Amino acid sequence: MKKINLKLIVKSKLFWRSVIIILLITSTVFYILQARESALRISMQNALSKTLEEKRVLGSKLLETISGLDKELKARERQIRVTLDRLEEEITTRRNIEARLLMSLEENRILKSRVIRHVRSPKTIELERIVIVNVAAAFEGKILAVNKEYSFVVVDLGRADDIRLGDILSVYRDDNFVGSVKVEKVEDNVCTASILPSWKNEEFKEDDEVKKIPSEKKEG
């Protein structure tokens, strides 16, 4: 009978036991690593989902903010437009008031001047003046005031001088043509005329001569 080698059997058992232990340790480490990787992946997915949700919320808030700003800007534009319209109306009203005031003041001055001349002049001379009045002279006057801001002039010619709305008057200085103006408002003895676009760069002055060629010559 063969003799059993106990040392060999013991060594063999120890070897396989060691192998099993190593395999158990390796499996445990692998399982732990796999569990950690899975937990890390889940954590990263949760973080990514959270980030995407925050991005979506921020985008929604940004769109709401932009929409609100757009509405506010449109509202302010409307307010500015209304304010500008009101300012334009006020400027136009002020311009008309200033023109009427200038016309009224100048008409009063002209009337006073005519009354004074009538009182001081001998009756015979006055009668003679009426008889020999030159119709063409009634269409000659002068600029009383110039408003550069609104591009218009006040002239001492009015309805009494056969001036009508839309008439074109020629302006002269020392017998040299300066430019043309168009009658916009007419009173009895004075009118307001806007400077035509072609002559807005010209300098109109007080006391410049104003002439209108009558459409028909009347016999005196």
Describe the structure.
The chain has 220 residues and is of the alpha+beta class. The chain has a single domain (48-213), classed as Elongation Factor Tu (Ef-tu), domain 3. Helices cover 56% and strands 17% of the residues. It contains two helices and six strands. It has helices at residues 6-120, 123-131, and strands at 140-147, 152-155, 168-173, 176-186, 191-195, 209-211. The chain has a six-stranded antiparallel beta barrel with strand order 1-2-5-4-3-6. A hairpin with a 4-residue loop joins strand 4 and strand 5. The chain is rod-shaped and about 155 Å long. The N and C termini lie far apart (176 Å). Mean pLDDT is 78; it is low at 118-138 and 216-220.
